[in-house]
């Protein structure tokens, strides 16, 4: 799914900083930010393997 939306200047700057820190392109950084938010707020559950801390 492709989604397009406008960001406020401070949001765009933060996303660029995140992308640079992660060494990824802006779309990948936006996807990671959205995924983290969805998981953090309980809208997206991680697969069981990702929740397993046994290494």
Q: Strand-residue fraction? A: under 5%
Shape: globular
In total, the number of strands is: 0
Structure class: mainly alpha
Mean pLDDT rating: 91
Query: Into which percent range does the helicity of residues fall?
Result: 55-70%
N- to C-terminal distance: 33 Å
Poorly predicted segments: none
Outline of this structure?
The chain is mostly helical and 55 residues long. It contains 3 helices and no strands. Helices cover 60% and strands 0% of the residues.
Task: Give the SSE layout.
Blueprint: H1 9-22, H2 26-40, H3 48-51
Helix pairs in contact: 1-2
Please give a structural write-up.
The chain is mainly α and 55 residues long. Helix content is 60%, strand content 0%. It contains three helices and no strands. Helix 1 crosses helix 2. It starts with 8 loop residues before the first helix and ends with a helix. The model has no long low-confidence stretch (mean pLDDT 91).
List keywords for this structure.
55 residues, mainly alpha
